[in-house]
Amino acid sequence: MTGASPATDQPRRLPSGGDRIDRTRTVRFTFDGVVHTGLLGDTLASALIANGVDIVATSIYDGRPRGIMTAGAEEPNALVQVRTATAEEPMLRATQVELTEGLEAWSLQGRGRLSADPDTGRFDRTYAHCDVLVVGAGAAGRTAALEAGRAGDRVILVDDGTAIEEAAAFAALPEVRLLPRATALGVYDHGFVLVAERTPTPTTEGRLWHIRARAIVLATGAIERPIVFADDDRPGIMLASAATTYIRRYGVRPGARAVIFTTNDSSDDAAMALAEAGIELVATVDARRAEVVVGTDADGSGRLAGVTIAAAPADMGPSRTRTVAADLLLVSGGWNPNVSLWSQARGTLRFDDRIAAFVPDRAFGAIRATGSLTGDGLPDVAPLWVVPPPEPDAPDAWAHHYVDLQRDSTAADLRRALDAGLTSIEHLKRYTTIGTAADQGKTSGVVASAIAAAVLGQEVGAVGVPTFRPPYVPVSFAFVAGRDRGALSDPVRTTSIQPWHEARGAVFEDVGQWKRPRYFPTEGEDMDAAVLRECAAARTGVAVMDASTLGKIDLQGPDTGLLLDRVYTNTFSTLKVGACRYGLMCGLDGMVFDDGVTSRLGLDRFHMTTTTGNAAAVLDHIEEWLQTEWPEFRVRATSVTEQWATVAVVGPRSRDVVAALAPGLDVSADAFPFMTWRDAVIAGTPGRAFRISFSGELAYELNVPTWHGLGLWEAVMAAGARHGITPYGTEALHVLRAEKGYPIIGQETDGSVTPQDLGMAWIVSTKKDFIGRRSHLRADLLRPNRKQLVGLLPVDPDALLPEGVQLVAPDAVLARTPVPMLGHVTSSYRSAALGRTFALAMVNGGLGRMGERVLAPMLDGSMIEAEIAPSVLFDPDNTRRDGVSGEAADR
Fold it and tell me: What is the pLDDT of residue 121?
């Protein structure tokens, strides 16, 4: 909506002035349920002042009314919840919220509220590199950016204002990028800076920039600081520079009768701004002339109504006083260079007595300060930190001398902490909570240090300031997450064969970040029927599985064999080129960490496979040991998981299918024995064939470059069509491997299981050292009653034991707690090959309990009785892994 004169709706809007606003365009907004109007270009804070809204919050602990104190990111009071047409965010500063049509805002008392709508707020992230990053677009920042841009550097200029002045000067510099409405949140190592840019558009509310800069220039300016005195928190008390901003930039009048309380000459500009706006200046209280403000009065709403002024003798004890009626008190205690980002970058600070503030000292890395951040251009100050009460030792005399307005922390809290013996500024911060709120003490930190220094009899520079930490201003989790919510909350990984799976109606499950087919139902089939059919095909004919998600690591270097000997419990340095070997890894605690098959591709090159979910963890494990414990090893480890598509062809007829796909490969048992691999041209594509089986059947794992994966899969399906080839998923895989007693890491194991517990002592070398070996000698890991992997056969062959169910002895008294537990079920399935249900379980001393029975109590009060059996329940002699006769396969 537009209007020529907004004055009727905005009682404190000045008739002229305001270089940031468009007086021809009014904007409607709501604050705490009340509809107001502002002008395009207003901030929420300037629009509230224009509408005469003086009280914007109630303090968090004391319940005192609070008003707008500043005009920038340092605002401690006007924290708001904001809702627009596309987003809702908490803990924004009204001083930095741009007014938009229909904006809704609510005051907060230091506590934000998460939106009930999980989809509110759309944010992006982006990445950039530059030669020079300049933070702050004041005069010094613009000069630095122009100099670097004219020298040919790639420059990014960041500023949290809505526009960057003199933007036209940068138009001829294509390597300079301007980012207004952007706040540098944190400076990290190696020139890494996070920047939050607010750019409301139909598609996004903002962007989180990840910027790498060769050099950083901080032109972050300075923040005017308050002076502490009694009742210094009333609405109507404002920093002098903030009042100047509201008058000149937004054309609003913060009050009608003003008092200035100052320690320096910068407040002269505020006095001129008051005159320009027609605001009566009733008194100027200058600490340099031995005058101070000792207190304030309020009207019925809590807004400032009067200012009490006193002469200030040397001991600062007030003497003659007078009270003047005023609704605006402008305070200027000096200026603090905004050293937050400098300190985050591990730059040191020193105290500058001239301006009574901390300034950058020694830089850490390629970072420099410029402009008023260094103290240049800031006025000399006659420092005044706090005005004592008339009777400083009286009870509650300091109770309303507010230091940190967000935390309601007072000079009384500081004195109490110091009386308790605390002297470190970090301890004082935590005791008083000064500087721990959302503004991180931007207006209170240095004042608190100076008050503490006075009590301790130390110099302010010796006391120092607390550590500055990112983020510089609060940022919502939604902003940090970007679009990583809902379907994008975690990366979804799919193999190159995914289109075929989807077209055939596969039901998927999440394995790590991968979408893997769980089963392939035909019309009318449930999961149980589909899995039984898929398992039967693998045991009697031929079946095919997409195994591309298995972790794959390429290991190269002359010390690779030695590395593998140390990370695996068994020996790999003796493995011959062309051979494969199953290996088991343990952590330092001796517990099983991962397993897989590793093949020797050459004298100095191996191909390792890992479990799907542990691929990244295994690579990280290897890198950690290479970099921290064995840096002398000449080994390079590279993830190639996504470089290879893997198709497992399984079953008695698998040899026929592979022979048709790779006519140049001799697939006979003698020429291509179990646990070997061969280079081959497979379906017209160079690749590798491995004789590996996770089902106990004759099986091949065919590897081709991933972009040929779908073509290979379709070729396998075509070659196996006459044999009734059947695709199978992870559920059938679990059944097939469980029938053979093959454990799955993370299902049979839980971080407390050793190889010996799994009945795999045979794979643990006694002749070499490896990660975890020493732990295997601990007494606790040698106990005979440790949980051990066994098979379970329910007495009722149709009873299916729930996975995770606890197992108890047949004579256990369930009514008496705690009930001694013998173990738990780790895997449980129906088996087409066994013609019954079965399970795997971890049972106390299970390997010595063969033939014994256990009970599994059900939630409905019933019991399932089961007999302990060996974990290998199908083909214990491994007669099938080299294939069976055609006649047997047909049966």
Answer: 64
Distance CA 647, CA 673 (A): 19
How many degrees, rounded to 5, is the angle at CA 811 between CA 810 and CA 813? Answer: 115
Q: Which residue carries 């009742």 as its tokens?
A: 231
Tell me whether strands 787-794 and 685-690 are parallel, antiparallel or unpaired: unpaired
Rounded distance between C-alpha atoms, residue 699 and residue 241, angstroms:
78
3-state secondary structure of 404: strand
**Of 6, 82, 5, which Cα lies nearest the Cα of 44?**
82
> Strands 823-831 and 836-844: what pairing?
antiparallel
216, 191 contact by CB (below 8 A): yes
Cα Rg, the chain, nearest whole Å: 37
State whether the Cα torsion 484-490-496-501 is positive or negative: negative
Among the listed residues 390, 273, 260, the one whose alpha carbon sits nearest the alpha carbon of residue 331:
260
CA 818 → CA 802, 813, 814, 861, distances in Å?
A: 21, 10, 8, 17
Structure tokens at 843: 């049972």
Read off the amino acid at residue 472. Answer: Y
Order of strands across the sheet with 291-298?
291-298, 304-311, 321-325
Which of 430, 495, 419 has the alpha carbon at shortest distance from 729?
Answer: 495
d(CA 771, CA 782): 17
Q: How many helices (H) and strands (E) does the chain have?
A: 18, 46
Cα–Cα distance measured from residue 683 to residue 665, given in angstroms and rounded to the nearest whole number: 11
Q: Closest Cα to residue 341, out of 158, 524, 593, 107?
A: 158
Q: Distance between CA atoms of 123 and 175, rounded to whole angstroms?
A: 26
Phi, psi of 324 (to 5 degrees): -115, 145
**How, if at all, do strands 34-40 and 22-31 pair?**
antiparallel
Strand order across the beta sheet in which 280-286 lies = 237-239, 328-332, 257-262, 280-286
Residue keyed to tokens 């002045």 = 165
Question: Which one-letter amino acid corresponds to residue 790?
Answer: V
What φ, ψ does residue 15 adopt, rounded to 5°? -70, -20
- Pick the closest to residue 612 from 548, 690, 543 (CA basis): 548
Quick one: how far is CA 650 from the chain centroid?
42
Nearest 5°: the CA angle 501, 607, 605 is 150
What does 252-269 look like in DSSP terms, one character per residue?
B-S-SEEEEEESSTTHHH
Angstrom distance (rounded) from CA 484 to CA 581? 40
Q: Per residue, what are the HEC states of 62-74? A: CCCEECCCCCCCC
Give 215's strand partners: 132
Query: Over the chain (891 residues), what is each successive 10-residue block's mean pLDDT?
Result: 50 94 96 96 97 95 96 95 84 93 89 66 88 97 97 97 90 94 95 92 83 98 98 98 98 98 97 98 96 96 97 59 96 98 96 97 96 97 95 92 96 95 94 93 95 95 93 87 72 94 96 95 95 97 98 98 98 98 97 98 98 96 97 97 98 97 96 97 98 97 98 98 97 97 95 96 96 96 95 97 96 88 97 96 97 95 96 96 58 34
792 closest CA partner among 822, 752, 761, 755: 822
Q: What is the DSSP letter of 512?
A: T
- Count CB neighbours of 698 within 10 A: 25
Q: What is the DSSP string of 482-498?
A: TT-SGGGSS--B--TTH
Hunting for tokens 């850490």 — which residue is that? 364
Q: How far apart are CA 220 and CA 344, in angstroms?
A: 13
HSE value, Cβ hemisphere, 13 Å, CA-based, for 600: 18
- What does the CA dihedral 321, 322, 326, 332 come to, rounded to 10 degrees? -40
| DSSP-assigned states of every residue in 104-120 | EEEE-SS-----S-TT-
Strands (E), 499-538: 507-511, 514-519
887 contacts: CB under 8 Å, gap ≥ 6: none
Structure token pair of residue 409? 């922390």
